[in-house]
Amino acid sequence: MKSAQVFSLLLLLLLLALPAFAGTNTSTDSERTGLEVTVYNSDLALVKDSRSVSLPEGEGELRFMDVASAIKPETVHVKSKNQPDALAILEQNYEYDLISPEKLLEKFVGREIKIELRNDYQDKSEIVDARLLSVNNGLVFEIGGQIYLNYPGLKIVPSIPDNLYARPTLAWLYANSSKEPHEMEVSYMTRGMSWKADYILVLSGDDKTADLTGWVTINNQSGARYNDAVLKLIAGEVKEVRDIMPPAMYMDRVAMAAPAPAPSFQEEEFFEYHIYNLSRRTTIGQNQTKQISLLEAFDSKLKKELIAGGSADYFRTQYRGGRIKQKVNVVISFKNSEENNLGMPLPKGIIRLYKKDSGGSLQFIGEDRIDHTPRDEEVRLTVGEAFDVVAERRQTKYRKIADNLVESTWELVVKNRKKDEPATVSFNERVYGTWEVLSSSQEYEKTDAFGLRFDVTAEPGEEKVVTYTLRNRF
Which domains can be identified in the chain, with CATH numbers? Predict the structure, then answer.
């Protein structure tokens, strides 16, 4: 008897020595003191959520609500900025079993619920007691000792279970030794957010200058709204190790840009990438596509070229079919430099080109995609094919000197069907092995070890022909 009393006393002392469980506490975005969102090009964002949170001393549970539903739980990092030694996170759970009619009914399988039957003709209702037996492929009830399938009426459950949540929640088991509120910073990565750059290039009447406007388009389908956030964008190819299971796909919504205000982003170098800081706070809503001005540049010099590409196979084969028609690509290029009223590193994106017609209306004339472009580099855009300029080539001689040695003579033809403007077509010839131009009716440029270029100019209505002979060893 005395041994039992001693054991009970020791157990009581042990329990008293243990810290009391401080219960369940909740933190919502109403306690938020700061928010920073860094968005990457690759369906990824880093969220830093700062809140002032008061916690009882001892061990307890903290439900940190209003986080992204596309969160990557393994990336969550929690710290108390003002009292880091007073708060320890013992366990973390990401709760995404959200409240819905289906989930509620699943939690009450095998339990009593009520069903309200409404009679609109008699303007009265009847409440029926029922036991929910199953929710698989339909509802099964036991009512008054009989089994009913998909019984009509409004289903009424007595409460919301503790393991269902109104919105995605991080739940932590913590140990707290401070009476003062914690300035908590919670950071995590989330899917469902991305950004891209879009540009509008408006050409002048003579195609020699243009105005460039850049827009940032942010798409948020992460499952959270970010109010009054500091926004940062990372441009560059950041390596990320993907999970074995592919991430969810997010639909991309496109919005038309309004006339551009003054640029809002400040650019800086960051590691081997570039970071663009929005100079003001902004709100990014869930399922929202937001556009923010990135840059504006006026009267930037550009160059327009008409280019016909060649093929190394031309010089290895004998052609008997007469002239070969070639596409004449229209290429616009400009230098991304301060001297050219530009100079900001350009994130990858699509540049859409416009030009005013004779009536003063802007018309779309083509588009092309650019990669990340540093300052002082050239931007080249292939925007379409020339309509009134025709390029052709014809093989006039072919001689096989040896198994690996060939001589061929070519005519390069430019037909300019424009009324009042000369046209210059650049034939970019590609060659295998070692080569030598034996003769040419016009000067050419050696562009690299396996390339040469002829710039052929034809006046309005003129058909200009250039001939040359090439010896090719391959």
Answer: 20-33+48-98+165-190 (no CATH), 101-156 (2.30.30), 192-239+249-301+343-373 (no CATH), 303-328+386-473 (2.60.40)
